[in-house]
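[AMINO ACID CHAIN]
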Amino acid sequence: MDTYKALGKRIKEKRTELGMTQAKLSELCDRSATMIGIVERNDKHTSIETLVRIANALNVSADYLLGDSVNYKNTDYIAKTNEMLSDMDENEIEYAYDMLNTFRDFRGKKPIG
């Protein structure tokens, strides 16, 4: 699939998954609703700046939005993990971090930090 077509499809899927309109997304990323529609339909290629603004507004990484074009197997897992972490308070995030380090240690890998 064309990179920009896949990008537009992924943006629309995530936006609709969040129950967000194009107007709301445009407000969150300081772009027009028309521009969001253009990007989703692949009528025009978007800039990196706009891609980053859209990713931030959708609370996902640019890698997640580029997932169909980037050969990176764990993109969905990383995005889902980031989504889970974004809903946690500081103590919960620290606990999750400690759990991951314990898992790394169990697997024989050096804990981080």
User: Anything to note?
Assistant: The helical segments are 3-17, 22-29, 33-41, 48-58, 62-65, 75-86, 90-106. The chain has a mean pLDDT of 87. The chain has two domains: 1-69, 73-113. The radius of gyration is 17 Å.
